Amino acid sequence: MKKIVLFLVAAWSLSSMCASAQSAARELSSRQKEVLLAQLGTNLRKFTTIQTKFTQEKHLALFKDVLRSEGLFAFSAPDRLRWEVLKPFHSLLLMNGRQVSKYDYPDGQNPRQIKFPAADALGAVLSQIADMHQGKFAAEEKNYDIEIHQGRSVTMILVPKNPRMKQVIQRIEIGFSSELDRIASVIIRENEGDYTRIVFAEDRRNLHLPDGLFSSP
Amino acid sequence: MRSFWGLALCLCLAACSGPQIQKNSSAITTPYPFGFRAQHQVILTVAGREVDFTGYLLVQGSSWRAMAFSEFGVSLFDMISSPEKGRRVIKTSGIPASYLSRQTADIIEMLFLPVNDRRSTLAQGAERIFCHGNVYEVTCSKERSFKGVKDKVPTHIVLENKKSGLRLEVNLIKFESMKIPEQYFDE
User: Fold this and answer.
1) Complex ipTM, two decimals?
2) Fewest beta carbons less than 10 Å away: which of A181, A187, B165, B166?
């Protein structure tokens, strides 16, 4: 009985701590935001390449279900990017300058290029990801209203300006490392409570990344 | 008159020599349980262009709900069908609602529900399905057993409408036999 009480007290304390940490996050004033964005920009631009693992979870609020995937992300400044999903199925998305290509692996080994119609739209999304990793936030101010919340960590909140995009995406939350030198997570919040959380881990930065990583497999 | 008999003869020959077409009745067979949820990787080809997405499907009897998500998890569409309220598009990000509630819904029912379409068996286990004036060829393969499901479930499905150039490739990622609560079909 004593153990149960102790457990409940511990659980309550932990949840209170989490709640207070969240409520402690406050929106920065425009001057503070400007200073922090400049600092983030300087820190992020120190790294010209990034290679990291990611896990992506699509949370379906209504169904209490989570769709998980994981893979590898590589970025080389200014405009080369590789987004490779390894589980639960294998797919590859490449951006090399203005060229965007996509592959799947129907037999599990050999890539097949997907002739997708919306290359420009996907290219725009990937360019935004590339801009974020280089701290080019000013470039995104034409697409989003940007808020910065600071608590135990710093979160950038992007609210789409385009009404059509806003119908689908309520906001994007970018979480930074405590050193403010890398993107640690991205949450894409949709309406009706659904969201996608992407968490980056085991990143290696400023490594030489071979050209082949960003060209057709 | 001669041409009429000629046409009639041709139709008879075609009926006798072609694949056997059966109008399915209540005795229709489907490997799927009464209630289930499934996640798929889907590659849709229309007029030579391809779109890939993750599909999420809930089925309970003749009610179903289908959703699709892009590579970064953003919702592409969400639609529901139930005997009481029919087919409804809850959300779409650019795909015309009429396309979803007609062709897309037809295809979902054809593949995953015991619907009364005319079907004929082709070579190598493929099926030809006639639905609302369209002709589809469906091949199911890589069947697998799942807990709580009597029959093996195909993990790879290819559907083609050769006339319109539509091709759909569906790979099963996750499958669970379960009772889906009614409220999920009630929006």
Assistant:
1) 0.81
2) B165
